[in-house]
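thought: fold this chain, then report.
action: predict
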Amino acid sequence: MDTPDDDELVRLAREAMGRAHSPYSKLDVGAALVTASGQVFSGCNVENASYGLTLCAERTAVVKAVSAGEKSFTDLAITTSRGEPLMPCGACRQFLREFGAELRIVVEGQSGQRLVSSLAELLPQAFEPADLASEGETGSAQ
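observation:
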């Protein structure tokens, strides 16, 4: 399966953004996540009146991918209804880190401005799976 280019990933993220449930923040977010096998999983933010139960688009896409048996990711596109691009929140950065530090992230706002970064750049010195290894064991960090 061919890996989609950035334009296609952003298009898929925008499509997912159109399904967002954001009655409280009024900020729609969409994500498109590419797996190492080339599959794409999309997600949108799903808000809840109890804000702590809200799911960001990035985490929605990851949960869908993991539920389908995928745990290795290469690229992530994020789009928002805001004019300027928004990078993932701290909770999403940590959630994404569970599956590797080298994830490439493309974000685009309504203005069309696009930023590209990596998870390692956005979450340096991250708490990671290897940090939970017992002393003397090697971790399974990715």
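thought: worth noting. The mean pLDDT is 93.
final: tokens above.
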